Amino acid sequence: MNNLLSQLPINTTKEHFEELIATKQTRIERIVSFGQTSPNSGWYNQTEHEWVMVLEGSGTIEFECGQSVTLNKGDYLNIPAHTKHKVSHTALNQATVWLAVFYA
């Protein structure tokens, strides 16, 4: 048995992506952030839909349209494919643990 909140990475200088399940139509990842945000190079513009939930910590997702949503522990959000977005904030004082489900 595994636990999404155990065995968190020790290295806090980078964001960690762990693929939990991958099929042709669905991918599930655990993402652990320690204050990291999206790269300055631009917006995510994914071909897949993304359902994301914060299990610990907090994070803010900003959309190209100007809207932003802050997710705290237990909050989730569905991001339709090709909706340009980026992570503009994650908690600095604790790990932010995301569960992300990408699907066709």
UniProtKB/TrEMBL annotation:
Residue span, Cupin type-2 domain: 43-102
Entry-linked CDD domains: cupin_reut_a1446
Name of the protein in its database record: Cupin 2 domain-containing protein
Biological source species: Pseudoalteromonas aurantia 208
